[in-house]
């Protein structure tokens, strides 16, 4: 099948067409439009093309353009770096993120924490899930990054406070405090000193400083030790830790809640998931992530003229243009993924080269390095949680970080299903 060919096959076992998260007022069309000089791109082939044009574009999302004005020092944070320096940084840290490394180093920790947390839910007869997924995703990412010399509950609270507040739009307009315009230029806002200094200081003093001190004495196999070896200053390490906290912890936390939402509400899918082997379970999670991308918009700016192509359509984008890339729309692009693209179907046919989660982990040079970690930790937790006879007490509340259309799922109240007693979960018997 060619890259642009439209798949003929419809889903053999569709699992419903309801996205649990849908930001108000977002349309699937037009596939490309220019508004006030900004290009809005919704077609999958074109969004993917922009993300893969590493030599003709630079990062313009996550407040990169405002935040980088506040940066000093020799090392640009990985999220904001571009070109050869970015490629060098990514290949130097790639070893922390390979599936083999993740399985070998972090699987035991994920299993232990998931066992503990799910046992607590069992004993309590329910839970507010978003608090638990925050704790879990912070602890897993903290191991990879090397933030292991402080109290995890405290760090979770500090990071949660961190990620609420006003930040900047890439076009330069500022979001108002308190309004739901909390943007997931989260990392950018902190880097650019737009957040209250006390929030930054608490994280620096309680979490990052002890981690740096311990690794100066005894380096380990983690990101902070690697940055120290590369000569990063304490402030530069702090900035990278904030990036990982926003990119790795906040995102995975939200995804686990949304995946649990789908799976608790679809009995057949849940049973299939629990009986499946690991690759098939990961396929279910990738498909949920495709339908419910945590990061809904990415941004790039062209550094040279660029021609975007999708079938017979052709657009000439001048150098210096800001491109707003619509991940939610591209991920459900009917031209590329078939007319049932808004349905959940783990056996979906895809054009060659399109990943199962499509663009939910991005693409090209900045593609998420933590994708395998996120899917594995989600799977390990859900395998245990979904064996409890739980249901949602009410629909969770979904709010939006406006700029990147990232969802936040809160008030995820789980209670024992009516008429059900407890079955003791047996994590040891769960499939690997
Ligand atoms: C469901 C969970 C996750 C989602 C949906 C997600 C999504 C993304 C996306 C869309 C990007 C690309 C940004 C761009 O192109 O501008 C990205 C980058 C990144 N992610 Fe993830 N991510 C997740 C989990 C993680 C985890 C667990 C880690 C690390 C422990 C992580 C670390 C990073 C880093 C460091 C970057 C920046 C890479 C670069 O700019 O080169 N992410 N993520």
Describe this structure as you would to a colleague:
It is a single chain. By secondary structure, this protein is α+β, with helices and mostly antiparallel strands. Helix content is 44%, strand content 12%. It contains 15 helices and twelve strands. A five-stranded mixed beta sheet has the order 1-2-8-5-3. The chain has a three-stranded antiparallel beta sheet with strand order 4-12-9. The longest helix is centred in the middle third of the chain and has 32 residues, at 234-265. The chain starts with 31 loop residues before the first strand and ends in a 16-residue tail after the last strand. Mean pLDDT is 86; it is low at 1-5, 166-185, 189-194 and 424-432. Protoporphyrin IX containing FE (HEM) is lined by residues 59, 61, 78-79, 90, 141, 144, 243-244, 247-248, 251-252, 255, 294-295, 298, 360-362, 366, 368-370, 373-374.
